[in-house]
């Protein structure tokens, strides 16, 4: 499976422009992961304009599980992070920095919400 991760693009427009300039109906990955559900709308629009069907030609997964993602066309598959655990680990990390302690890597549980885009 050919997976592409789109990160560092901060707006719907930048994801749209990236997709318009880098995807074609004959040349695209099997799946794209976009770091932010809101920005996925730019990718969905670009795929539509290029005749790339979701999920038949390409699967898309976002990150955040924002409420509107279930209403995209197609409904967006997304990763839903455990925000309570994330906040707790962030606070622990800040306290460790304040107290001059080493910070270890942490794992945050999350789950995949599978909808129509995957």
From TrEMBL:
Superkingdom of this protein's organism: Bacteria
UniProt cross-references to InterPro entries, sorted A to Z: LacI/GalR-like_sensor, Peripla_BP_I
Record-annotated Transcriptional regulator LacI/GalR-like sensor domain positions: 21-118
SUPFAM superfamilies given in the database record: Periplasmic binding protein-like I
Record's keyword terms, sorted: DNA-binding, Transcription, Transcription regulation
Pfam families: Peripla_BP_3 (PF13377)
PANTHER family with a match to the protein in the record: HTH-TYPE TRANSCRIPTIONAL REGULATOR GALS (PTHR30146:SF109), LACI-RELATED TRANSCRIPTIONAL REPRESSOR (PTHR30146)
Name assigned to this protein: LacI family transcriptional regulator
């Amino acid at each position: 499976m050919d997976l592409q991760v789109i990160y560092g693009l901060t707006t719907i427009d930048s994801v749209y422009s990236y997709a318009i300039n880098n995807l074609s109906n004959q040349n695209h990955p099997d799946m794209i992961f976009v770091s932010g559900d809101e920005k996925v709308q730019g990718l969905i629009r670009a795929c539509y304009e290029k005749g790339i069907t979701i999920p038949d030609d390409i699967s898309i997964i976002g990150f955040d599980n924002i409420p509107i993602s279930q209403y995209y066309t197609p409904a967006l598959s997304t990763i839903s992070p455990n925000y309570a655990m994330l906040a707790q680990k962030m606070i622990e990390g800040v306290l460790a920095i304040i107290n001059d302690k080493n910070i270890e890597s942490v794992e945050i549980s999350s789950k995949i919400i599978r909808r129509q885009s995957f």
